[in-house]
TrEMBL record:
Belongs to the thiolase-like superfamily. Chalcone/stilbene synthases family. Keywords: Acyltransferase, Transferase. This is Type III polyketide synthase. SUPFAM superfamilies: Thiolase-like. InterPro entries: Chalcone/stilbene_synt_C, Chalcone/stilbene_synt_N, Polyketide_synthase_type-III, Thiolase-like. Gene3D superfamilies: 3.40.47.10. Residues 212-341 form the Chalcone/stilbene synthase C-terminal domain. It comes from the Bacteria. Residues 10-197 form the Chalcone/stilbene synthase N-terminal domain.
Length: 385
């Protein structure tokens, strides 16, 4: 079975606190008729700090969609490689070992995808497959795990790199004054995450099953208005109550696997807001402590879209993991309304060196090394001419 290894996470250096967010809302929207409501909603998010890819004064300006997308591409190329390198290190693999790259983002646009740039600049093989995911929003982190699992089942022994790059602050629209927009201005943050799913070996979550669920007739509840000024985030007031509709899907998938969703050992879920987590506790009959990693991500980094599940999973690793064989769940929620769910069991360090697949390195790769192009080959690699 394929194993989701330890994620690598990075957040930008510019920080905005809750107090600064509230003060900013008061000064920018002093005459707004629903300012009091917006301030209460922002306070109730539980978000205390967020990270921004640009300084605050630049974040608040809107130079146009062209410039913003240029910022997205520049910052992605600047920040993604280091996170990818750490994720590969965590998985004890090198770039030539990766068979598929899944790149997830809903906050900027590139074509060719960032996957092509990574292959060309970081030593991945030219036959590495590419799957960009751009329109699943916050659910895309869970979807990427599921698609990586599907690929590893179709190609036993294959390895998949997942990259999530979300610069939500580049979607700030100063002319959007609905309460939902004001709330989003105090909720979303920026982050980059990467994680490897190993086809054999590895320490982490051994994925056993995945599934999706779409709530009918909720397409307009979370959406983008795509305009001359870029992406305008649109949030329906009914979204916080969606767990009543999605929790049964989690229970059903676990039941098909012979598991009780209320009796698992760990839960890694997308923290869109505190109401999501509170409702999951209620509908799944769980104690709030069960979602402590997701709550910590929300508190310290805000809603970082598709990267939330990887940040929360990284916190589980940092906490020492769980006992061998412990069952758990990973889920992302987003536009659709969609849930992307994966079930798996924890495998510890004892499995790290088991079934490591040797990779024969071609002459073309050796030539790149001679040209000064960084290539990293794992232990046990054989050289072929």
């Amino acid at each position: 079975m394929a194993t989701l290894c330890r994620p690598a996470i990075a957040v930008p250096e510019h920080v905005i606190t809750l107090d600064e967010t509230l003060d900013l809302a008061r000064s920018l929207h002093a005459g707004h008729p629903q300012l009091g409501l917006a301030l209460r909603l922002i306070e109730n998010t539980g978000v205390r700090t967020r990270h921004l890819v640009q300084p605050l004064e630049q974040t608040l300006t809107h130079p146009g969609f062209t410039v913003r997308n240029q910022v997205y591409e520049r910052e992605a190329k600047l920040r993604v490689p280091e996170v990818v390198e750490r994720a590969l290190d965590h998985a004890e693999l090198g770039a030539p070992d990766i068979d598929l790259i899944i790149y997830v983002s809903c906050t900027g646009f590139m074509m060719p995808s960032m996957t092509a740039w990574l292959i060309n600049t970081m030593g991945f093989r030219s036959d590495t497959r590419q799957v960009p995911i751009a329109q699943l929003g916050c659910a895309a982190g869970g979807a990427a795990v599921s698609r990586a699992h599907d690929f590893c089942r179709a190609y036993p022994g294959a390895n998949v790199l997942i990259v999530a790059c979300e610069f939500c602050s580049l979607c700030y629209q100063p002319t959007d004054l609905e309460v939902g927009s004001l709330l989003s201005n105090g909720l979303f943050g920026d982050a980059v995450a990467a994680v490897v799913m190993r086809g054999h070996g590895g320490c982490g979550v051994q994925i056993e099953r995945n599934g999706s669920h779409l709530v009918p007739d909720t397409e307009g509840w979370i959406s983008y208005g795509v305009k001359d000024t870029g992406f305008h985030f649109q949030l329906d007031k009914r979204v916080p109550g969606t767990m009543e509709m999605l929790a049964p899907a989690l229970r059903t998938l676990a039941g098909k696997h012979g598991w009780d969703v209320s009796g698992l050992g760990f839960y890694i879920v997308h923290a869109g807001g505190p109401r999501i987590l509170d409702d999951l506790c209620h509908f799944l009959n769980l104690e709030p402590e069960r979602f402590r990693y997701s709550r910590a991500t929300l508190t310290e980094r805000g809603n970082i879209a598709s990267a939330v599940v990887f940040d929360a999973l990284a916190r589980l690793f940092a906490d020492g993991g769980v006992p061998e064989g412990t069952p758990g769940l990973l889920a992302g929620f987003g536009p659709g309304i969609t849930a992307e769910i994966a079930l798996g069991s924890w495998v510890g360090a004892t499995a790290e060196a088991v079934h490591r697949r040797p990779r024969a390195i071609a002459t073309s790769d050796i030539a790149l090394v001679h040209q000064g192009v960084p290539r990293r080959f794992p232990a046990g690699t054989t050289i072929t001419e």
